[in-house]
Amino acid sequence: MRTRQAVEVLAALGQETRLDIFRHLIQAGPAGLPAGEIAARLKVPLATLSFHLQHLKHARLARSQKRGKLVIYSANFTTVDRLIGYLLHDCCGRPRTGLEVCGEAARESKPASKSVSGEADS
Amino acid sequence: MRTRQAVEVLAALGQETRLDIFRHLIQAGPAGLPAGEIAARLKVPLATLSFHLQHLKHARLARSQKRGKLVIYSANFTTVDRLIGYLLHDCCGRPRTGLEVCGEAARESKPASKSVSGEADS
DNA sequence: CTTACGCTTCTACAATACTGGAACTATGAG
DNA sequence: CTCATAGTTCCAGTATTGTAGAAGCGTAAG
Questions:
Q1: Chain A environment of B63 (Cβ under 8 Å)
Q2: Domains along chain A with CATH numbers
Q3: Which one, of B115, B36, B34, lies nearest residue B74 by Cα?
Q4: Inter-chain contact A122–B27, Cβ cutoff 8 Å?
Q5: Alpha carbon distance B108, A90 (integer Å)
Q6: Could you give the CA distance from residue B113 to residue B105 in angstroms, rounded to a whole number?
Q7: What is the pLDDT along chain B (122 residues), one digit of tens a residue?
Q8: Out of A15, B75, B89, B99, which residue is the most buried by the measure of CB atoms under 10 Å away?
């Protein structure tokens, strides 16, 4: 993933409403959700929702397909994977390997264990 | 990492100038870089740079320390790690495991190999 | 003390983004 | 065909963000 696209994806997710929408799409899995359903769940006017959905589509974070008069939106997981790849390699490949970071990430989801790395957290 | 903070970090990195600054900080490693040096490298006016640096600090993506009359900025790797953790678990923990994603990310950095997953890329 | 330097804060302006009502388009039911 | 439903696009209006000159604040050297 190029930096230019990374900026676009990061900016797309760096907005509360949009990240909320995206999380709902993830929850819904590959089956996706119709726009109206998302609007109802998030209590966002359809026009506003549509605006953000176009944004997510443009960043390749969401896909849409028509089913009757519904428009079903679903998350594009590969874009997130690529973003993570970008963060791991282009940004943070210097001080440690991706697997190490994955290890740290995995550790974070567990209750708690004595921190292994010595880095403080400002 | 809470969603609220994730939005902040994503937004902080979702801006070209700021991502550029951050990448330079990463390149510089733990030693960091003085503000003026960053401004010179990126050819950004000091006032503009300072604005973005405060932004990065607020998102806990950068730290600063004074050394004489220099202000040295350095990247806070753990925040990126946590962001990745958030993306892996809170966002994308549904369809596959973190290690799988790490595998995909690792694969992406190599020249090219026949795509293993069947997912299309819209 | 005075000056130079490095950086931040102040300030104003331009650009961009977010929001949501209203009008419009497409699909399906009666 | 007519009507209802689902979404998108249009169009303000408002808010937020990005940019950068100018002034201000420390620090250190002369």
A1: 122
A2: 3-78 (1.10.10.10)
A3: B34
A4: no
A5: 12
A6: 13
A7: 889 999 999 999 999 999 999 999 999 999 999 999 999 999 999 999 999 999 999 999 999 999 999 999 999 999 999 999 999 987 666 544 444 444 444 444 433 333 333 343 43
A8: B75
